[in-house]
Amino acid sequence: MKRFSFLTIVTPVTCLVAGLAAVFSVGVFTSAHAAEKLVCENRSDIIAGLASTYAEAPVSMGFTEQGTVLEILAGPDGNWTMIETLPSGKACLVASGQMWQGIVPDAKPANTAF
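Above: the chain sequence. Below: its structure as tokens.
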């Protein structure tokens, strides 16, 4: 299911919308298309766009060995988006989906002998 159009993710405040819209005129981002085209913007613009359009907010994050930050944003309806943020503050949409479920790990996993 295709969920994102470039213009619904990036806030209208961005002056680059018109120029970037032409570049991304195909207009739809899904994980299957991630290798073909990336939607990248200022992290704050992506976070604001996902919050206003899909009611998504950060629910988890981690640092990569390459020095980037991976974040999962999820909404109350189960929609989710993964973004990767570079040290420069530019973030790219990596994947999106449905049926996000937050899982709290056990304090001591049952399959360990410790």
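The mean pLDDT is 74.
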